[in-house]
Hints:
The chain has 545 residues and is α/β, with parallel strands linked by helices. It has 15 helices and 24 strands. The protein is globular and about 65 Å long. The model is unreliable at 535-545 (pLDDT under 50).
Amino acid sequence: MKYDYIIIGGGSAGCVLANRLSADPAINVLLLEAGGDDKHPLYSMPAGFAKMTKGRGSWGWDTVPQKHLNNRVLRFTQAKVIGGGSSVNAQIYTRGAAADYDEWETECGAKGWSYSDVLPYFKRAENNQRFANKYHSYDGPLGVSNPISPLPICEAFFQAGQELGIPFNPDFNGEKQDGLGYYQLTQLHAQRSSTSTAYLRPVQNRSNLTVLLNAFTKRIILSGKKAIGVEVIHSDPSKSGIYNAEREIILSSGAIGSPKLLMQSGIGPADHLRDVGIEVKHDLPGVGSNLQDHLDLFVISECTGNHTYDPYSSPFLAAWAGLQYLLLKKGPVASSLFETGGFWYADESARSPDIQFHLGLGSGIEAGVAQMNNPGVTLNSALLRPRSRGTVRLANSNPSSAPLIDPNYWADPYDRDMSIKGLRLAREIMNQTALKRFVLEEKLPGSSKVSDQQLFEYACANAKTDHHPVGTCRIGNDKDSVVSSDLKVHGIEGLRVVDASVMPRVPSSNTNAPTIMIAEKAADLILGKTLPTMDKTHEDSLTFA
C-alpha cells in the first residue's frame, strides 16, 4: 500500500494537512488516527468537552510524580479522537503575543517563523464571525466566533479588572493582549469548530484522501537514513501492516505522541533508547526534551445566588438546558464554560502579559471544592512563559506502554514565585467591589491561607495542567533541536514533524490556534509553494504586542 504522503495523527495539525495536501488531485494522502470518530453529540456541543476529556476521547495518561509539587501526579489529558485536542478542548481561540514568534526566530533559530511570517497563516485559517482587519479574516475553514450566551457575572468580572487598572480588551488576538474580555471561540453556529469538522469533513470524500481511524502506528520504518513507511496495528487485521510513503511521512501526533513514536522507531537520544532496549537508528538527543506546559492554579468562590451554571447539574435543569440548546442554540450547553478571561502581569518587567485568566462559570469544574449552599465561580490563573523544562521518555520498548511524562513543573523557582503572584492577583480580582453582588466568599484556597508557604502547599495539592504541552521536537539549528525551520527531522530524509512539539517555546496563550497555524504554514513548505509575505507598509502598520 503506497501513498505520496502519510500523516500520522489526525489531530489539530493532521486534519489541516490532510485537507491542504489532498487539494491537489494528483497527490495521494493517507491520514492515520489512533482514536475513533467524533460522531458522539457531546463532541459538537460546546459544553460537552467537560465529559469527553476522559475515557473514549483520551489516552488516559498521567505525569510522573512532580518533585517540585510534593511528588504529586497530575492527570495529563491527550486527545485520542479525530480532530485531536480541537475536538475535546474548551474552544478558546488565542494566538499569543507577537513577541513570542519574533523570539522563536531571533532567539531560537526558527528562521521564517516571526510574527510577520505567521500572521498570514493565522488569517488563512480563520472564518471569523466578527473581525475583518489586518489581524483577522473571514474566508478560512475554521469557525471563530464570540460567546453566544454570556452571563451577567462576566461583565462584573470586567468591571472588577478595571477597578484594579486592568482594561477591557475586545480582541486578544489584535493589537495587544493586555486586559480582560470575552475570548473568541472555535465555534460556528453554536457548535464546536474542530479541525475535523472544519478541515476534514468537507473533503473526506476526495478519492485521493484515505482516512484510517483506530489505526495505531507502531513505528516509522527507515531504510538507512530515509523514512519510507510505517507499521500500523488495526483491529481489522486486513488493515494492519506496512504502509509506504513515496514522498514524505509527516508526524503530527502532538507534543507527547510525536517524540514517543520517534523513540519507538529508534530515533532519539541514544543512551535512553539503549536503556529501554530499542535499537538506535539515529541518535537525535533533543527528541523528547524541552517539554513546556502551562500549570494552572485557581480560586473558587461561592456566589450570592444562581449566577453560574452550577444549578444545571441537576437532572431536571440539565434536561431543560439540552432542550434550550436544541431549539434555540443558547444556554449552558452553548457555552464553553471558560469563555471569559484575559491577560495581565505577575512580573511587572515582563515584555507582555505573563499571566492568563480563565473565568469558569461554575465550581464543579475543578476538584477539591468544599460543599457550598449556593453555586460557585472559578477563576483560573496560569504563568504563560515558564522557565522550567521537562521530558518525555519511554517506559520500556513496548509501543503500547504509556510514556513517562515529566513536565518538571516549578523546577525553576521563578515559575513558582510568579505563579503564586498570579494566584494572588486572581484572588484580588475576585475581591473587588464590582463582584460583591455576585460573589459571597472565597472557598479555595480559603481566606485563612495567606502566606506564600500556605499557597505553595495549596498549589501542590490542587494545581493542574492547562493541557498546553509543546517543545519536544523543537525547531532549531543546534545540536539539541529536532527539526529544521522547514520542519524536516535533522539527519533523516523524508520525515517531518508538524504539531505543537516543534514550538521552541510555549506561546503566551492557549496552543490550539498556534498549532493550526503551524500546519497551514507546513502545507506550503511541503508543497513548495511561495510563502505569503507582508509588504513593508503592512508590516509597519502592525503594533506588536
